[in-house]
UniProtKB/TrEMBL annotation:
UniProt xrefs under InterPro entries: Acyl_CoA_acyltransferase (IPR016181), GNAT_dom (IPR000182), MshD_Acetyltransferase (IPR050276)
Organism from which the protein derives: Erysipelothrix inopinata
Pfam families listed in its UniProt record: Acetyltransf_1
SUPFAM superfamilies in the record: Acyl-CoA N-acyltransferases (Nat)
Name of this chain's protein: GNAT family N-acetyltransferase
GO molecular function, one term: acyltransferase activity, transferring groups other than amino-acyl groups
Entry keyword Metal-binding: no
Length: 160
């Protein structure tokens, strides 16, 4: 599989904008238009954010948005650490292993420390999203018991 992270540009922003998750996942993932707006506002504030199309070859199949450092309301782990803020595979491309390959690439990018050294990467998901819990746990993410915006916080150590 030829999965790669491609920065959002004029060439792919509308492909990412149009992507959506499966109907039963809509309560678990913010729409990409909302994510792109949040990324823009985050950049305007001078905070760190990275947005990528997830490509299989030349075809955009998903989207990921990463952050670095703490913002208001974030859990303690956010300080000087990375966040997988949004991550989705378009409904047309789910079930093909792209998510697993993409998460490997995402973690590899984070471990390049583009915004500075970090000890951990964190994310959060809805408590009823059993798939997310199992998926992220399979990569070594461990729940902390903290809640952020009604979501469970899970952390991956970057020391390995």
């Amino acid at each position: 599989m030829d999965i790669k992270l491609v920065p959002i540009t004029d060439d792919n922003v509308w492909d990412v904008y149009k992507m959506s998750v499966a109907k039963h996942q809509e309560d678990f993932v913010a729409p990409n238009d909302q994510s792109l707006i949040e990324a823009y506002v985050t950049l305007l504030k001078g905070d760190n954010v990275h947005t990528f199309a997830i490509n299989q070859g030349d075809t955009p199949v998903g989207f990921v948005m990463l952050g670095y450092g703490a913002q208001e309301g974030d859990p303690e782990i956010a300080k000087d650490n990375y966040l997988i803020w949004r991550f989705m595979i378009d409904h047309e491309y789910q079930g093909k292993g792209y998510g697993k390959q993409a998460l490997h690439e995402i973690i590899k990018f984070i471990k390049s420390f583009p915004n500075g050294e970090a000890k951990a990467c964190w994310l959060s998901y809805e408590p009823e999203n059993i798939f997310a819990k199992k998926f992220y746990a399979s990569f070594g993410f461990k729940e902390t018991g903290e809640i952020c915006d009604d979501e469970l916080v899970a952390v991956l150590s970057l020391n390995s």
